[in-house]
Amino acid sequence: MSKVQCELCPRLCVIPEGAAGDCRVRVNIEGKLRATTYGRPSAVHIDPIEKKPFYHFRPTTSVFSIGTAGCNLHCLNCQNWQLSQRGGEEMEQIYSLPPAGLVQEALDRHCQGLAYTYNDPIVFYEYVRDSAELAKAKGLNNVFVTAGYINPKPLRELCRWLDATTLDIKAFDDGFYRRVCSGSLKPVLDAMVIFREEKVWLEVSNLMIPSLNDDMALVRRLARWMRDELGADTPLHFLRFVPMYRMRSLPPTPETSLVRAREEARDAGLHHVYIGNLFGHEAESTFCPRDGTLLVQRSGMRVIANHLTADGRCPSCQQPIAGVWH
Amino acid sequence: MNTDEWEADRRYFLWLCAGVVLGAAVPVVPGNARVGTCAERSRSIAHHSGALCAPYGYPEAAYYRALPEDES
Fold first, then answer.
1. Which position among A14, A44, A213, B45 has the lowest Cβ density within 10 Å, counted as fewest Cβ atoms?
2. Interchain contact, A88 vs B51, CB within 8 Å
3. Do B51 and A3 count as a contact with CB atoms less than 8 A apart?
4. ipTM value of the model?
């Protein structure tokens, strides 16, 4: 019985013949590792790009979004656990959408890009890679919504095809990763640096869970690390937690925690800090870091008004605003 | 063999045939990972106009290595 070792993510699963890796979807079939969700998404939607969240990447565009079964993290609070914490055999729906069909669907529906999202697209790596290459040739963007738990070599290869990524850091705390997500922090930090080095537009999100990762000391450490390693212009989104999956006993994040976290991150020097999942709050909008002018007004993932100049500057002080605006 | 016994055997045989046919229609990959039949997928993608049940199987994954027997 020949075993294989998957080298895609830091787990480095050793997989006996007939079994799947920790992600449930990369299977050893007769001594070869096979990607069983290739071309077989279980979630297919058209989303506004603001939902991912992306606030500095081509606002108001639509992205054809897919996700499959499986994930290489096992977060107790996962909001897409019906997808991520199941194997393909447990899915109620499996669409047949190989890369060429996926790209054609996106074009037919007038989307401007593809989003690899919902579960962590790392586990359908080959499907992303092949689809992204075709999409790019057809003029579509490729956006990647991930937790960043991947090895450096495959990530660098994938970056050739990606335009933007939202990386969800679970907490700036290795203990949290081990207790809540069955992962570790360092590979995630390395992934963020790689995205930056490979010039993939990066936005960072952080779901704040009451009593588990809402300590302001963690927020300060994350913000300072981002400022020093990624640059002060990297957007950071603090997301409101709502009880999910195996973490239903905790309350939703209070607005005061999110507001305080935003203040801490801005005090640490980050220019663009947002609050998500709290619709109607002013922290959904983009302000000029120099003079405070309202630049992009949003509400509930929708852009209400965009006052940026055509070349992405503040209309009053001409400060360039980091992002990919067109 | 009386008529009742013959009828029972006939029914058993029909059930057996039906079981074999149904079993063959449900693809299974090692690890008991059932992936759904063509008919199931067809129903689930009513919006999708592309090829159903495309014959692309399970492509080989990138980034893995076979372990030598003594290492595994």
1. A14
2. no
3. no
4. 0.91
